[in-house]
Design brief:
Thioredoxin-like_sf (chains A, B), transferase (chains A, B), alpha+beta, Glutathione S-transferase domain-containing protein (chains A, B), homodimer
Chain lengths: 201, 201
């Protein structure tokens, strides 16, 4: 399988981490989002929504959306719970990640640490709004992790991979994780999983 | 099962429509989001993220996130494809809905048509930004529907329900669907499905 990838994108990292932990080799094609390479006609023919990650299967089908790719790779492996309710809880946290977490924590990181000169293009009030909503998401995670070691099924699943990707890099967006003791302990548990790789790997 | 519900929320409507089409009875508990009833201690104990829809199972477990609830209700029914890749494509469009569609199309509708006086609380530039991103999402849908009748597996699935909920009500947020011919034909196909119910039902 082939992954259209931007290396410092947390959404792409999720896919690399999942594939590595499952022992699935990926042919990596790097795409420069900052140079608008996801907006070319060639790329848009593969993903009309113009984003990475994008998975290409061996028979030439395309699958975008990081968490849908995770589900595709992880189904029927230990990374997805067998129980229907627990499987839905895993998806619950993956939808939470895309709706309540990524748009603030990943977006703040993009403008502060990924896009050159990005900090000068955003207002103080915009950054403050991202920080407020991002801290709300971290607060919800902290509350949950005070009672359980992982997000779903009481074990390491795709939900942990999805939430780890941008949470562990939240500092790049100006988030201080010091107050989130349970979140920090969970980050360490994720990093201690067999075959963990870093975003840079 | 019990559904904590706000009747004019598209996210809640998705769940009512899915349950009705599957013949699953739901005990509906209406929650007034505008009166902050999702922010009380009692409600936050059920869903720390303070949102509806929220599903309560017969044995007292809670499941938030509309699209995770849809997956829980729909798994192993005709609303979810049996093929692994098609199931992932269904999820792809459900993640697209929550990331690229709902935050613009549903949010514009909320401020223009749901929250009393909401129009006066938002700026022209904020509304224009929602309209720009919302039209991008509608454009991606239009392009896809020019080649296929439904979003995944070439048949009616949870992805259609998830995207129908706010697309059919996009006019409430100031979106004109006239230019989206394929989208309008798809809306009619969704409405022609057996046991379809409207948001008001």
């Amino acid at each position: 399988m082939r992954l259209y990838n931007m290396h410092n994108s947390g959404n792409c990292y999720k896919v690399r981490l999942t594939a590595h932990q499952l022992g699935l080799p990926l042919d990596i094609v790097n795409v420069d989002v900052l140079a608008q390479e996801t907006r070319t006609g060639t790329f848009l023919a593969k993903n009309p929504n113009g984003r990475v990650p994008l998975l290409e299967t061996d028979d030439g089908r395309f699958l975008p959306e990081s968490n849908a790719i995770l589900f595709y790779l992880g189904e029927n492996t230990p990374l997805v719970p067998e129980d229907a309710f627990e499987r839905a809880q895993m998806l619950q946290w993956m939808f939470f990640e895309q709706y309540s977490h990524e748009p603030y924590i990943a977006v703040a990181r993009f403008w502060l640490s990924i896009k050159p000169g990005g900090r000068d293009e955003i207002s103080e009030s915009q950054l403050a709004a991202w920080h407020e909503r991002g801290h709300q998401a971290l607060g919800v995670m902290e509350k949950h992790l005070m009672y359980t070691d992982f997000f779903a099924a009481n074990r390491y699943t795709l939900a942990d991979i999805a939430l780890y990707a941008y949470t562990h890099a939240a500092g790049d967006g100006g988030f201080d994780l010091a107050p989130y003791e349970a979140v920090r302990a969970w980050l360490a548990r994720v990093e201690a999983q067999p075959r963990h790789i870093t975003m840079k790997a």
